[in-house]
Amino acid sequence: MYVPLLATDFLRHAVQQYGKKTGVVDGDKRFTYAQFGERVHRLSNALIDMGIKKGDRVAVLDTNSHRLLELHFGVPQIGAILLPINIRLSPREITYVLNDSGARCLVINEDMTGLVERDQLKSVERYIILEGDEQKPGSIPGERYEPLLEGSSAIIEDDFGLDEQDPAEMFYTSGTSGNPKGMLLTHRTLWLAATKDLFFGVANDRTVYLQAIPLFHANCWRKAHMITAVGGRHVMLPQFRPALICELIEREKVNYMEMVPTMADTLTQFGDLDKYDLSSLERIVIGGAPLLEGTQNTLMEKFPWCVIHAGYGMSETSSCGTTAHLKEHLRGLPDEQKKVLMRSQGYADMLTRVRIVDGNGNDVKHDGIAMGEIIMRGNTVIDGYWGLPEETKKTIIDGWLYSGDIATMNEDGYITIVDRKKDIIISGGENIGSVEVENVISSHPAVAEVAVVAAPHEKWGETPAAFIVLAENARLTADELIAYCREEGLSGFKIPRIIEFKADLPKGGTGKVLKSELKRSLWK
Ligand code: AMP
Fold first, then answer.
1. In this structure, what CATH number is given to the domain that contains residue 445?
2. How far is the C-alpha of 479 from the C-alpha of 376, rounded, in Å?
3. Cα-atom radius of gyration of the chain, to the nearest Å?
4. Kind plus residue range of the DSSP H or E element containing 256
5. How many domains, in total, are found in the chain?
6. Which domain holds residue 449?
7. Residue 441, domain member (yes or no)
8. Is the N end or the C end of the chain the one with fewer CB atoms within 10 Å?
9. Ligand 1 pocket: which of 259, 314, 323 to mutate (most atoms <8 Å of CB)?
10. pTM of the model
11. How far does residue 417's CA lie from ligand 1's centre (Å)?
12. What is the pLDDT of residue 138?
């Protein structure tokens, strides 16, 4: 029997099986799945009444909130396409995204109206305002969200003739080089992506998940749908503030959370961490950027009772890729080796085929040493970029997506990213992966955060430069750090020639360090 895989299946299931259960917590607000489902239906009907049709793009600018979660279901339910926009993009980039996508409707948190250059928008016809306390002077006029829902029916009977190949969501890359690139995710893609972590049995109806990573990031690593599918509980985190995180973990008994490494560093450095009861946490997954040894050590020290591992993916793969679970038959390995595997990018699952290839497209040896580019193929990989056939041709070759990430693969299938292709440091003809240097520096107890990039060098062409944020009250000089790198066995040419201590590192919307900015400061 062919029944299309639809993003709406998750909510229907949660409402039917877990209607009385609290499914969504946002600040003081709590919604059962029945209440949440009703709000989603009202939203869908409101959009229909506003004239939104199948295929229309509905953009949204908001932090993680129950409303953003409602949009994840209410928009695709009627065949429209949800476009969550990264709120850290500049107004110019946001204008570009809205115009490029041809968005017809913009749903916007009224605290963010300053991000939008309304007179520059070409396609937006309708605005929905997610209310703060009061409508602010100069903010965008539009329909207000809560009255809109109140005035709409809570009954949906139509199935809108949806097929699993219909697009359901749209995302844009961060656009660190050039304009952001758009991509569509179909219902089928979202459905399959949501099942990814279930292969590892990491979520079920006792899961209480902290939505810490912004949902505008590549479908927030699939968790809007997956947590709903299993009847788990979403705990929304509007801002990454350590005190708020600890309060929510303690109050809601959160047992699962995911972070990018810089978030993890911020959390573990929080001075009051020990004052909270965080014992409910069981699993911490780190992705979006390499999990460095120093960050792993600190996480293991602060949360010794938790399973802590990394995961890797891209927007282009709906965030699916590889996961660093420890395979059962490797549990007998010495602790240090297990740690290396669990902070690696991990291994492929049923959804995504992963290969590491050389410049001619041939697989490199799976010896953990030979480097090549990660390429991926699978049901959650995009067909191409929105309106960019040339970019698509460069990225998807013979049915494989070229990631731009350079990695090794070991004989057990675990991959380890060495660097982004464009960030690899070439010093006197030798390749230096910034991750190796960062791993060593991060393991120094005085270092809270580190990023290593290529700096120009008269003789060697390039040389590593390290930007470092020290842990609170810690002291470290450049000479001491160089001595430490030597002691740790880092080859001379890999030891940074430039070491800059900074109060913080520049970060993008998801907390990833913007290496391009650091590089620019050196290559003026
Ligand atoms: P985005 O599409 O914004 O999610 O960025 C995808 C990129 O983030 C990948 O191509 C990698 O360069 C990087 N990335 C994601 N997860 C990891 C990870 N666990 N380790 C290293 N890099 C990662």
1. 3.30.300.30
2. 42
3. 23
4. strand 256-259
5. 1
6. 424-523
7. yes
8. N
9. 314
10. 0.93
11. 9
12. 59
